[in-house]
Each structure stands twice: as structure tokens, then as C-alpha cells.
């Protein structure tokens, strides 16, 4: 049962921020970093591959793993939560979508101008000069042996391309983070969906919104709230709770 004050707050909201995390992508079958690796990758720890040091030590291993991950993303499809967020943007005057996810499922569901705090699997850049290639990327070949794949070379400096994601020990992109913080501090309502709230500094986003006076709602199978005022929890999968929320506020089903 969705509380009436939340329904009313969303109905009246002029600026909504949606802050999404790995739980949204997990409902499309994309494993989170907390999940154990499977198949030929089960001997590896995901966190140990997601560092600049790992890339320096074995670029083919790291690039091969990220291309395997990217291939899984390309095979996945947006789920009802992705669709509901794109639909919500058509009902409110202004919506800002901030994601910690590195896939493109929000965009494929129809969302635009997505702020990617942790980068994207689909936008590699040079490990040396930082430039990104001006080419579209499609389905990769399965990395040889399911494991190693030599990275392409940069057209500008011949350095090796690296995955365009934020690795452990690296800073989040300043422009994206500042834009997310500014949106949180100016919105009427923030929906935090599929995120544990434990990865900083991104996890500051819901708190900034609440302290600025916004209504904050957490959507998770086991959501947690820290405050009794202007904070709500919707327990359940995002693919169920978000379409229900939109249907109850705007009287319209979201596309499946």
C-alpha cells in the first residue's frame, strides 16, 4: 500500500530526481558486484579486476572481463522499472535521472540525458591520454578462452583503450557529480531505487535532497529509512513498485 502523502507529493512535484543503482539492472539479469562470478570467471574477484593497477598488470585480462560484461548487458533488456522511469518523465514537468549503473538500459528504455556517476561500459577511453574513440561499439566477439582480449589502441596516441567506467580508487567525474548534487538540492521529490546507499560519494545524493526539503522515497526489497519526516519506503522489486506508483498517481499503466 503506497501512502497517500507520497502519492500527493509526487502528483504535486515539479522536479523529480530518480537515483538508480545496481538493483534496477539486476532485475534485467545483470549481476551486481556483490554477486559471485560464474563460469570461466569464477576464480576471479570482481573488485580485484576493477582497478587501474589490475589493468596495468594485465590489460588483456581486464579488457576481456569488461567486454564479457558488456556483451551480457547488450543481451539484456530493459525491465518494467526502466520503462516506468522513462514514463514518469512524461508526467512530471522536470525529471533528472542519476544512475550508478554502467549499462545503457535506461537509455534503451527511452530515458534521455542520463547522468552516469560511474561511467559507461560503452564509452571506452585511452588509458594514457584519456581521449575516447569516435566510433560506435557493437556486440563483441566472445573473449578468447572466455577470458583474455587485447585492448584496442587509441587513434590519437596509440595507447591502450580502457573501459570507460570508474574504478576503485578513482574519483567520480566532477561534472556528473556536481550536476547530481545540484539536482538533489533543487528537487521536490527524490526516488532512490535499487541502491544500497553505501557507495560514496554517490550515496550522498538522497540525503542532500532530504536536507534541502525534498520528499525522499526508497524502493528496494528491503528499504531502510533514517527519518520519519518526508521519507518513505516501498518494499519490493523496482519493476513492481515503480509501475504501481505511477499508475496510482497518474492513472496510467507503464509499457511492459
What does this structure look like?
This protein has 256 residues and is an alpha/beta fold. The chain has 2 domains: 1-30 and 77-120 and 172-256, Rossmann fold (3-Layer(aba) Sandwich), CATH 3.40.50; 31-75 and 125-162, SIR2/SIRT2 'Small Domain'. Helix content is 34%, strand content 13%. The protein is built from 10 helices and 8 strands. A 6-stranded parallel β-sheet has the order 3-2-1-6-7-8, sandwiched between helices. Strands 4-5 form a two-stranded antiparallel ribbon. The longest helix is centred in the N-terminal third of the chain and has 17 residues, at 59-75. The radius of gyration is 19 Å and the shape is elongated. The mean pLDDT is 89.
- Helical fraction equals 25-40%
Structural class by helix and strand composition: alpha/beta
Biggest sheet layout: 6 strands, parallel
How large a portion of the residues is in β-strands, by DSSP E? Answer: 5-15%
Going across the biggest sheet, name each strand in turn: 3-2-1-6-7-8
CATH structural class of the largest domain: Alpha Beta
Low-pLDDT parts are: none
Annotated CATH architecture of the largest domain: 3-Layer(aba) Sandwich
What's the total number of strands? 8
The number of helical runs is 10
> Tell me, what's the shape?
elongated
String of helices and strands: HEHHHHHEHEEEHEHEEH
Number of domains: 2
CATH topology of the largest domain: Rossmann fold
On the 0 to 100 scale, the average pLDDT is 89
Gyration radius, rounded: 19 Å
